[in-house]
């Protein structure tokens, strides 16, 4: 599990900072509740670059921009029972080539709730007469 940024700075403070207690690697690892190798790695990075933030991670860039993500969410909020296929078709008409799966991912990231329309028929005239 990756350490949070404040824990990384705590490692540096406990072992090397002039105002810190200057603990050993093992003592710092016990205090921060992490592995000894983790302490050594972050202290080495601190000595080299003074930077403890996360680097960029590899991966494919997103197909949609944040503005296009907002369009997807707006289309979903406008209508109650719109499907991801409907949203995909509307976006493709606008010139944005996205897949149905991408639309579902963006809605999931936004915390959208999925509502399915009732699939059963309500009472018909025949039911009412029988009652």
Automatic annotation (TrEMBL):
Segments for region (Disordered): 48-69, 92-131
Pfam family for this entry, one: HTH_32
Signal peptide location: none
GO molecular function, one term: DNA binding
InterPro entries linked: Homeodomain-like_sf (IPR009057)
Highest taxon in the source lineage: Eukaryota
A biological process term (GO) from this entry: DNA transposition
Protein name per its UniProtKB record: Transposase Tc1-like domain-containing protein
Taxonomic lineage: Eukaryota, Metazoa, Spiralia, Gnathifera, Rotifera
